[in-house]
C-alpha cells in the first residue's frame, strides 16, 4: 500500500493497480527483481505481482440425464447441426418464470414428464367450457397433438423420463379447442386466455392445407390478436407462434393462410435433419424463421411426450417446429422480461442464420441478410437469441403508412406490372424510415385463381413472392382485400419505387381485373421524426386536429392539406396561411390565433404577392389581423364591386334608352322563402 500521485487504476481505499513497461504481460514466470525493488522502497507498504488464476463457474447446469436426451439431435448435436440449445442452457437460461400455452386438442396434465411444469392458469377447455384441458381419449389416439407439442416446450429435465423440453423450467399449459366445432368465438377465446399471465401462445394448426383454400381469422379472432399485442403482458404484447403449414405436397402457399400471414404471428417453417426442405413444407414470404422437424423415412424425427404417460420419437410436420420455436422464445424472455412482441421478431430476424439449410432461393436483401421463402431468415439460434436479448433496447413505436397504389380497375391480361414511387408518408407522424412487415392488400377477380403468380419488389430490389401458382385452386372468386405479407425487406428503407407484378402462368385464355392495390408499410421512424402526440383539450399550440383529436404537425418543407401533409400543393391550391382549425370533432376554444403554412384554395383567400407575404411574415401582429379578418374584408370588397358594376351598367342603359328599369328592393328585412320580393320602380 502506498500513497501515490502517479497514474494508476484505483481499486479501493489506498490500493492501486500499476502496469510496468518492463513486465511482460501474461508471462509464465514472475518478475522477482521488480518485486524486490518495490518492497525495499520506503514509501511502499505492500506490493504484489498480479497473476492469472483459474476459476470455474459454480452453475447448476449439467447435461440432462433423461434417457431420450441423446436422441434429441436438434437440441444438441456434436456436428453443430442443432438449435444451439445447450449453449443457452450453459448461460443459465432454461425458461424459468416464463409461461407458454399450447392451443390445440388438450394436454395430458398428469403426464409424469409434464406434471411438474403444468400451469392450470395457462389452461382451459374451450370445447366443453371447463378449466380441465385433459384430452379426449380415443382408440386411435387422435388427440395426442397438444400433449406432444407441450413436451417439446417444457418436458421436465433430469427426472429419468423421456427427453427434455427446450425450456425445461418454463411453465406449460394447454387449451383444448380443436376437439369440437371450431368457430370464430372458440378461436378468439383461446387466443385471449389470461393474457396477463401467459407469455407465449403456440399454435400448430390453421385452415386446410389443400392448395385451394384462402382463409384466415374472422372478426373476433382478429380482435383477439390485436388486443393480445396491445394489452397482453401488461402492454408488452402477447407472443403468438404459428406453424407455417403442411400443404407442400399440394403446392399450397402459406400466404393464403391468414394466421401465418399475420404481422402479429411469428411464422415458423421446418427443416429436416440434413437441412433439406421437407416434402410437406409450404414456401411463402411471411415465414420468419425455421426449426427442425421430420423428413424422409431415413431421417430422425422429434422426441417428446405422448398420451397415456408415454414417450415418442416420431413427432412430425411443422406442428413440431412451432413448439421448438416457442421454447426458444421462452429462453429469450427469461433473459429479458421487457421484450415486446415486435422486439422478439427483431431478435429472430437478427439471430437466425442459413446454416446448412439447402434451397435454391436464398437471396440477399437490401440490408445484406440472407432470406428464403422456404426458411425465412434461417435456423433459430437459442444461444444467439438469449445473448442478444440480454442487452437489447426496445424498438421505437410501430408506425403504419398506408398508400393507395391502384384504385381504378386494371386489366391483368397475361402480365400486369404496377410501378410507383413512394415517400413512405414523409412529413407525417406515420413516416416509416425502417421497414418491418410489408403488406400488399389486393382486390382482384380472376377466372382461375390458381394460375396467378404475384411478386412485390422493394426499392432495394428485394423480390418477394407473395403468391406462387396453386394448380389445385380452380376458384374464380379472386381475392377481396387480401393482405399478402412479406418479411423479406426487414430493416430496408421504404422510400422509392415499389413494383407489383401479377403474372398469368396459364396463358392468354384466362382473364381478370385488379381493382385495388393498397401498400401498407409497417416499421419505425427516425428518432428525429417522432409522431405527433395526442393533443389534450384546450391545447393552444395545436394547429389542426384529425378525427381522433390527434394533433397534426407537418415537418419542415411540408404543408397542411385536408388533415394531411404534402410536399407540394395540388392544382387549384396555393401556399398560404390559415387560422387554427378547431372545427373537427369536439370544439376546442382557441386561446390564440396561431397560423401555419397550408395549401389554401385560390377562391377561398386572397392571393398574396411574394412581397406582401414576406411583410406579413416579418410582422406577426399584422399577420394575425389579416388572417383573422380577411374573409370579412373580401366579402365587403366583393359586394362593393358588384354594386358599382351594376350601377354603372344601369346608368349607361338609362342614358341610351331613356326607359325606366325596375330594380329589386334593397330595403332591410328577411327575404320570404316562398318567393322573391315584389318589384318596384
In short:
The protein has 681 residues and is α+β, with helices and mostly antiparallel strands.
Description:
This protein has 681 residues and is an alpha+beta fold. The protein folds into four domains: 1-51, no CATH class; 86-390, Rossmann fold (3-Layer(aba) Sandwich); 401-525, Sandwich (Jelly Rolls); 544-632, no CATH class. The chain is 19% helix and 22% strand. The protein is built from ten helices and 28 strands. Strands 4-5-3-6-7-8-9 form a seven-stranded parallel beta sheet, with helices on both faces. Strands 14, 15, 17, 20 and 22 form a five-stranded antiparallel beta sheet that branches. A hairpin with a 5-residue loop joins strand 18 (452-457) and strand 19 (463-467). It comes from Champsocephalus esox (pike icefish). Keywords: Cleavage on pair of basic residues, Glycoprotein, Hydrolase, Membrane, Protease, Serine protease, Signal, Transmembrane, Transmembrane helix, Zymogen. This is P/Homo B domain-containing protein. Residues 111-133 are annotated as: Disordered.
